[in-house]
Design goal:
145 residues, 78% helix
């Protein structure tokens, strides 16, 4: 503790989690944007139909929404633990059922990193540099003593 200022020093773990969140958000936002606005949902459905994926007509818009919308939330540091759980599940499936067995290591390795990032968020949350943290601090400050 910094006794002169009466405050704790900056926590490096907050910066580390921020770096993982920003990297994940960049990958996810681009992937979701592409599914919606570049390739389009019909093309994404066709792509999903090539793989052992249940209900590709439902999966395509859901995955695109989770990636684009969730990626934006992740960038802001909102709902980190929930998004971490969702992304961990999504990318365990993509890695083990689609990418690694059907496309090989070169296309699967990013999914492995997204699994690791998702697990970090599940266990550590959004970190200290996040709106989740800011909202938690404000709610504690507003709570009666």
């Amino acid at each position: 503790m910094n006794e002169e200022a009466g405050k704790r020093p900056a926590q490096p773990s907050g910066i580390g989690i921020l770096a993982v969140r920003v990297a994940m958000a960049a990958v996810l936002i681009v992937a979701g944007f592409r599914k919606f606005f570049v390739d389009g949902i019909p093309a994404t459905v066709e792509f999903f139909q090539q793989f052992p994926m249940p209900y590709p007509e439902l999966a395509a818009p859901v995955v695109a929404t989770i990636e684009l919308g969730g990626g934006i939330l992740l960038l802001l540091g909102l709902a980190g633990r929930l998004l971490g759980a969702i992304y961990t599940a999504e990318f365990i499936y993509a890695f083990s059922v689609v990418k690694l067995p059907l496309m090989g290591w070169d296309l699967a390795r990013i999914d492995l990193m997204l699994i690791a990032g998702g697990l970090l968020l599940v266990f550590a949350g959004s970190g200290t540099v996040s709106l989740d943290h800011l909202m938690r601090r404000r709610s504690r400050a507003a709570a009666p003593a």
